[in-house]
Specification:
With 142 residues, the protein is α+β, with helices and mostly antiparallel strands. The protein has a single domain, classed as Electron Transport, Fmn-binding Protein, Chain A (Pnp Oxidase, Chain A), CATH 2.30.110. It has four helices and eight strands; from the N terminus they run βαββββαββααβ. Strands 1, 2, 3, 4, 5, 6, 7 and 8 form an eight-stranded antiparallel sheet that branches.
Amino acid sequence: MAQKMTDEEWRAFVSHGTRTGKLSTVRADGSPHVAPIWFLLDGDDLIFNTGKDTVKGRNLARDGRVALCVDDDRPPYAYVVLRGRARISEDLDELRLWAGRIGGRYMGEERAEEFGARNGVPGELLVRVRIEKVLAEASVSD
């Protein structure tokens, strides 16, 4: 039977290694859009960056509601779903800092600066989502 994760457990789970998140945003017609993202946690916020002119960038500018799913696809399976509202920033210093940190997580610290420079530029958005709801279960198949 699935076991509910504690706050400490779900935070460790989503921060482990290079697990990507599957981000759901709301299209103009109300339908969902899902895209994989790289992300980090910062306290009670989920942080990622995206292009201003991407589908998710446009969706977030219009409607900040999001859900993010992070899962382990190996038995006994586990997942975390985070819901909240996005706040967008185009501050280049902040964007470059977080783009570097995110790049370091997924590509290794030796490439953090490269990804900060690549993704911390005009036309990119820094997205900070205040986590409002968490659903987190481990040992789903037990």
